[in-house]
Specification:
InterPro entries: DUF3846. It holds the Pfam family DUF3846. With 99 residues, the chain is an alpha+beta fold. It contains three helices and six strands, in the order H-E-E-E-E-E-E-H-H. It has one domain. It has a four-stranded antiparallel beta sheet with strand order 1-2-5-6. It has a two-stranded antiparallel sheet with strand order 3-4. The longest helix has 11 residues.
């Protein structure tokens, strides 16, 4: 776990991209003002991330050669975001269970 946290500069967050494919990023990236890195749907990944495979138990494993090519192609192009765009992509949910 320490190595994973070191790679992304903090606590890790996992985002499932596909069956058995996981993006690992800094859980607090947006909150601590890391720069936007890549868009992911309507979201923006802030800070360093990496992509790994996952098995049925949820353990990280190597990607297949096909998946390496697929995700290398997908994330190859650098994207640039303003800090405002990164902040706008942040969603904080507030749940009220008192009712």
């Amino acid at each position: 776990m320490e190595g994973l946290q070191k790679a992304v500069g903090g606590y890790i967050e996992t985002v499932y991209l596909d069956d058995y494919v996981v993006l690992v990023c800094n859980e607090e990236g947006k909150l601590i003002g890391l720069p936007g890195n890549r868009s992911l749907g309507n979201d923006i990944i802030a800070g360093t991330f990496f992509v790994v495979g996952s098995n049925d138990d949820g353990d990280f494993v190597s990607l297949t050669e096909d998946k390496i090519r697929q995700y290398s192609d997908r994330f190859q192009k650098t994207e640039t975001f303003t800090q405002e765009q990164v902040e706008d992509a942040s969603v904080i949910f507030s749940l009220d269970f008192s009712k």
